[in-house]
Structures are given as C-alpha cells and as structure tokens.
Amino acid sequence: MKDFKGKVAVITGGANGIGFAIAEECAKREIKIVIADINELDLKKAEEKLKAQGAEVLALQTDVIKYEDMERLADKTLERFGHVDLLFNNAGVVVAGPAWSLSLRDWEWIMKVNVWGIIHGEKAFIPIMLKQDTECHIINTASAAGLLSLDGMSAYHTSKFAAVALSESTYLDLQCVTDKIKMSVFCPGFIQTDLNNCERHRPKDYDNDMEDEYYHSDSYKAKEEQKHKVIQNGIPVDMVGATIFEAIEEEKFYILTHPEINPLIGLRTRNILEGGNPSIKDIVGVK
Ligand SMILES: NC(=O)c1ccc[n+]([C@@H]2O[C@H](COP(=O)([O-])OP(=O)(O)OC[C@H]3O[C@@H](n4cnc5c(N)ncnc54)[C@H](O)[C@@H]3O)[C@@H](O)[C@H]2O)c1
To answer: Its Gene Ontology molecular function terms (predicted)?
Structure first.
C-alpha cells in the first residue's frame, strides 16, 4: 500500500505509546483513525490530541481479551467509515519473572492480551477484509522478545514467540487465498513508552494475589526495577510510526528497530542449527 489518504486504520492499544505513535503517523497521512483501548481516560485524551491534529477519529473503549469487544469494534468501524484498510493488533502488557514464580493469573493475563488479543483482531477483521476484496495491511506488534529469549521474562517471551508464529502463519495462509491482504510483524527492541506501568491496565478478573510471597521478594523487585530501566533507556517512541509505514509501503514482513540486537537473533538460530544450547545473557539495555 502506498496511497494512504482516506484509508481507515484500526489500532488496538492506541491510547498510549507505540499505538498512539502509529495513530499520529496515520493523522499525518490523512488516514481515518479508530483507536481502541481498555483505558477510557487515556483514550479520551488521545482522541482529543488526534482531533487537534486534524484527524478524523473514532475512539472506542475495547478490551482485546473479550471477543465481543473486538466484534463491536469491527461493527462500529464499518458503521462509521464503511470499510477498514489497516489493522494494528498492538495492545500488550508485560510481567517479569521465571515461569514457576509468576501466578497463573499473570500467565493468563499476558497470554490473553498479547496472544488472544491478536487472535481476536484477526478473527474479527480478516473476514471483513476478504469480503471487501480491497488492498489491506495487517500489522501485529510482537517484539524482539519474540525472536530471542533472555532470563526473567518467561511469560512475555512465550506470548511474543506466539505472536510471531501467529503472524507468520497468517501471512502464509493469506497468500493461499488472496494477494490483496498484506501482513507485517513489528518486532522492536526497547522503546520509551508506559509499558513498565501496564499494571494499571490489568482487568479485575486477572487481579493477582499480592499476598503471594513472590511479589514481596527481592527477585521480583529487581525484575521490576530492570523493566523500568530498560524501557526508559529505549529509543524515543516518535521514531516508530515512520519505520512502520515505510515497511507497509515496501510490503516488508519483519519490522525490526534495533540493529544491535540482530547478531543475537543470529546467535540463537546458530545455536539451534549447530546443536548449541540457549546462551544469550547480555543484551543492550538489559544488564
Ligand atoms: N515499549 C517497548 O519497549 C516494547 C518493545 C517491544 C514490544 N512492545 C510491544 O508494543 C505494544 C505496545 O506497548 P507500548 O510499549 O506502547 O506500551 P503502553 O503501555 O505505552 O501502551 C499499551 C496500550 O495497550 C493498552 N492495553 C493494555 N491492555 C489492553 C487490553 N486488554 N485491551 C485493549 N488495550 C489494552 C493500554 O491501555 C495502553 O494504552 C505491546 O504489544 C508491547 O508488548 C513494546
């Protein structure tokens, strides 16, 4: 896709961070914007900012965990704009810790948002795009954490590897039935956003038992501090919108942002192919 004016983009997790940066890039390109987010207050602020930039905006409170919310998002998008051309399955959360220390609630929450959120987006919107039979593009936000693994981030890696696999397989499946719907997976390294404060987006149904000793342990506190540090040391978020749209124009599937991480992705692949074991201990910004 090269001609964006008048197109319609749906962005989940669009009220903050990467989602909002994508929305601002859409505004620059005169794309009509549907921002969907669980956080009503942030959504309202984002809507006002985008409207002040001259964008045509529909803001809908949406929990990507709930399929009925995603169906409503699709219905309302069509009701307001009549078509959908770009879908950004971007909402995501992070919880740090080893697999056995995290609560089952943590596991459920992260997998529901980071994986099921994308499944719901694809199920709600791809049939509409196929029926439209027009040029479309879907961009799933995964992470560099979906291409390599580090210690202390088991649930996040699991969810992001799943997001990459889901994107790759959807890309291949779409190729079997249409040449009009393109697909990309966004795999950034650290970006300065509010991701480290994502507890504020945790729905009540997924509340943790904060009495659990893990959440009072030094190990948990150290992981939380590290999470804050690496996000704060990331690249500025306003760099991502242009990068993503260049990839859409070039029909590039894998969108990476941090060249210094690429050799580590190569190292993981070599370990797999040459009979090595997981060995990535140091990554820029982590230790
Ligand atoms: N910031 C980074 O360093 C980084 C790196 C790699 C990948 N990512 C991924 O980028 C995506 C966006 O994260 P961000 O860094 O902009 O974080 P952010 O917290 O700034 O923005 C995420 C948005 O998602 C929304 N959200 C959370 N749960 C939701 C739900 N159930 N339904 C709908 N919306 C929900 C939040 O309200 C928030 O507005 C995530 O998938 C994240 O995993 C971020």
So the answer is: oxidoreductase activity
287 confidence band (pLDDT: 50, 70, 90): very low
CATH superfamily, domain 8-273, is NAD(P)-binding Rossmann-like Domain (3.40.50.720)
What are the helix (H) ranges across the chain? 17-28, 40-52, 67-81, 104-111, 117-132, 154-177, 218-232, 240-250, 262-273
C-beta neighbour count of 89 within 10 angstroms: 29
As a whole number, mean pLDDT of residues 155-168 equals: 98
Nearest to 116 by CA among 150, 144, 91, 146: 91
Q: Specify the ligand 1 atom closest to the Cα of 14.
A: 39
Q: Give 10-35 pLDDT, tens digit per residue.
A: 999 999 999 999 999 999 999 999 99
Closest to 143 measured CA to CA, from 104, 115, 177, 185? 185
Pocket test for ligand 1, best of 108, 193, 227, 231 (most atoms within 8 A of CB): 193
Tokens, residue 169: 């397989």
91 bridge partner residues: none
pLDDT value for 227: 87
Whether residue 283 is predicted with pLDDT greater than 80 in this model: the reply is no
Q: Which amino acid would we find at residue 273?
A: L
